[in-house]
Amino acid sequence: MRLSGVLSALALALCVTSSPTRRGNHVVHEKRAMEPKRWQLVRRLEADKVLPMRFGLTQQNLHKLEEMLMAVSHPESPTYGQHYTPTEVVDVFAPSDETISAVKDWLVEFGFSPERLRLSLNKAWIEVDATTAEAEELLQTEYHVFAHESGIEQISCHSYSVPEHVREHIDLIQPTVHFAHRLPRDFKPSQQKRDFQRLGMPGAHSGPKTNGVKVLAAPSDLSTCDEMITPDCLRALYSIDRTPVETKKNTFGISEFTPQAFLAEDLDIFFGNFSPSQVGTRPKLISIDGGVVQTEDQSFDFNGESDLDLEYGFALTNPQPILLLQAGDLVEGASFNNLLDAIDASFCTFEGGDNPEFDGIYPDRERGGFDHPESCGIIAPPFVISTSYGQDEASVTNAYAQRQCTEYGKLGLLGTTILYSSGDSGVAGDGGCLDDNNQESENGTRFNPDFPVSCPFVTGVGATQVNPGSTVSDPESACMQVIFSGGGFSNFFEMPSFQAEAVTNFLTNHPPPFPATQFNASGKARGIPDLSANGANYVIGVDGELELVFGTSCSSPVTGSIITLINDARIEAGKGPVGFINPAIYTASFQKAFHDITTGSNPGCGTIGFNATEGWDPVTGVGTPNMTALLPLFLALP
């Protein structure tokens, strides 16, 4: 699934160089990730327009985040499993007094009186209401108004600058380069549907794919797993054999984004065929920013993802309850940041809060919208969160991506496993490949990785398949039916230490058969994915019938189910959840617990993509899990 942007009441502005501010050499701090389409520049923003400026302060100790995460997640660490409390995490990373003073002094020296400046309770951001003229001089930029044919206007800027001595103390400033791409829900439905799928809400083109095959009779054994994947096929493939006993202590969350929603009758059709004791079972709804399980729009596009995630999550972890993290109202929708707000109250205001370009802004003032305060810290982080949605890394700014990635690292410190599917377009992004200007283009040839899976603090899940004519006892290959497993190397994030040996071995022993200019071939970039699971020919109940679906959307909830079962065993043994699993699964001792995938590739951008090979590869990661082998390894850890 893709995430689409949300509409801001503000309007877009183009930032260009203006007159210098009163102190220091300015340097460009941030620029817009992609230029807006179907919008026209109409005028300069009025000089007396008041803008609610927010300055996101750089948190301290972020450079220690990976080290801290390794200390509680690496199996050889003496402090493995000693996860932090939420209060400890906030205290460790709160901006320093030096940072707060540096930004305040800059603003006061510019001309803002101290009385105009406001510091958030968690010290994460400074706010001041400034006129356009003040903001333009402060940031050496110009604000312009852009208009859409619908009559909607937006402001933002192409780039902005800050004094060099202040830059290290600021992560991002709003409103500046951000541009809300989505149109109102009632504007030209056919056109709106494309925008609806662009950044902040799920789109059918990037969720589970269907080849249109209807399943007339549910399989009764394992003989057809090459044609139809069922829960029993997955149990056989990955040696899944445990009935949970700690269901009151264990937690498993599955993320969905409105208007994507499950249909109760679809779950029962699936359960009736594959897990009869669960007929009537439903997830516990956690409504985030007005999230609702809507039933007005019913089709594969609206129900396929949620039906798939819940059907397989429930069947593989029966009788474990599942928390449905349903984010966003029907008017505005939601983003990954809105989801993160709900499980970490401090994130709501971290670096200035949500971004109107990519995130839902609540209360929603549109008619029928969620008119209550945003959902901040309404639920403790589940031990496992599976998310089968994503977007192209190039569609967000680096600062935005880094901010969100930091939060995933913090959740790892708390003991949560964050899983994201790696995408279904091979080395190409959903919006296409990148041109020389790092813009998505029909003529682009540079690989376009997914986000948030490119963040090194999440576990990326690719897709495999049972080859036609093969059995569940035969080796799988990278998925090459209907979809291609997303993979490659991030253009934003550096290679984490736990992945260094695996990535270096791949690039050294299996050099890709295409120019290094087509991808981040530095040898220092985060590789994607981390592991894989089957993603082809899943039988799901959807819109009143059984149908086949494909995608890494299938792989993530299956992997989440396996980790949930492992957590159950650890809880029964008096231990805590495994949390961030990446440092463990890359170690030599854990390699025997994965089926190495050595065939198939992930084509895109006019190439065959990367090849699945011995060891880790940017198609299937370290391979597919063998739960029977994984369980004792994780149980042996503190």
UniProtKB/TrEMBL annotation:
Binds 1 Ca(2+) ion per subunit. Residues 191-212 are annotated as: Disordered. Keywords: Calcium, Glycoprotein, Hydrolase, Metal-binding, Protease, Secreted, Serine protease, Signal, Virulence, Zymogen. The active site is at E305 (charge relay system), D309 (charge relay system), S553 (charge relay system). Its EC number is 3.4.14.10. It is an enzyme of class 3 (hydrolase). GO terms for molecular function: metal ion binding; serine-type endopeptidase activity; tripeptidyl-peptidase activity. It is found in: Secreted, Extracellular space. Ca(2+) binds at D596, I597, G615, D617. The keyword Transport does not apply. Residues 1-18 form the signal peptide. InterPro entries: Peptidase_S8/S53_dom_sf, S53_propep, Sedolisin_dom, Tripeptidyl-peptidase_I. SMART domains: Pro-kuma_activ. CDD domains: Peptidases_S53 (cd04056), Pro-peptidase_S53 (cd11377). Pfam families: Pro-kuma_activ (PF09286). One of its GO terms (biological process) is proteolysis. Residues 228-637 form the Peptidase S53 domain. It comes from the Eukaryota. One of its GO terms (cellular component) is extracellular region. PANTHER family: PROTEASE S8 TRIPEPTIDYL PEPTIDASE I CLN2, SERINE PROTEASE AORO, PUTATIVE (AFU_ORTHOLOGUE AFUA_6G10250)-RELATED. Secreted tripeptidyl-peptidase which degrades proteins at acidic pHs and is involved in virulence. This is tripeptidyl-peptidase II. It comes from Ceriporiopsis subvermispora (strain B) (White-rot fungus).
